[in-house]
Design brief:
Elements lengths: L1 H10 L8 H23 L5 H12 L5 E3 H8 L3 H13 L3 E5 L7 E5 L1 H21 L5 H20 L10
Antiparallel strand pairs: 1-3, 2-3
Helix pairs in contact: 2-6, 3-6, 4-5
């Protein structure tokens, strides 16, 4: 990483390239984490998008159901993407759509009993896979890393960061 930064500083001394030391490792780590997750989930015949929906429903608590709109908001995807995900998981028997009585206009997406059982099995495997990626970090390093990442994510998600080309 140091050679890349040094080369850019040599080639473009007018540009601050210090972010490469943070962004590039985060980008590479993200790819490794996603590859690892994809491998674990493929063994169960699922994708990350499926885990996202199933996990969101599970975390909502019994009866493990949310409206389609709420599911879209919590998963941070479009309603169209939610529909595609739900349709795929309905075919697998993991979720079902339930209409709310008496007017039946409100549609909930709910984990099926099979979906709940399978998710609990899959979740344990996913967590074991994630844990295998962290094995080289000591508990204090993990705590520090988590705190730094949470702080950075909070800045980005709250929109309190200063964007290039804008004035505060």
């Amino acid at each position: 990483m140091g050679r890349i930064i040094a080369a850019w500083r040599r080639e473009r001394p007018d540009v601050d390239v210090s972010s490469i030391g943070i962004i590039t490792p985060v980008w590479r780590l993200g790819a490794i984490v996603m590859d690892n997750r994809a491998h674990v989930l493929a063994a169960h015949g699922l994708e990350q998008s499926h885990l996202d929906v199933l996990g969101t429903l599970r975390r909502s608590g019994a009866p493990y159901r949310l409206t389609a709109g709420e599911l879209s908001r919590r998963c941070r995807v479009t309603p169209g993407a939610t529909t595609q995900r739900v349709q795929a998981m309905e075919k697998l028997g993991l979720v079902e759509r339930v209409r709310e009585e008496p007017d039946r206009r409100t549609v909930h997406v709910q984990l099926t009993p099979e979906g709940l059982t399978r998710l609990d099995e899959i979740f344990a495997d996913v967590m074991a896979g994630d844990e295998s990626l962290l094995v080289g970090l000591s508990p204090p390093q993990r705590t520090s890393l988590e705190q730094l990442l949470r702080a950075w994510l909070d800045v980005l998600e709250t929109g309190s960061m200063e964007r290039p080309g804008t004035t505060p």
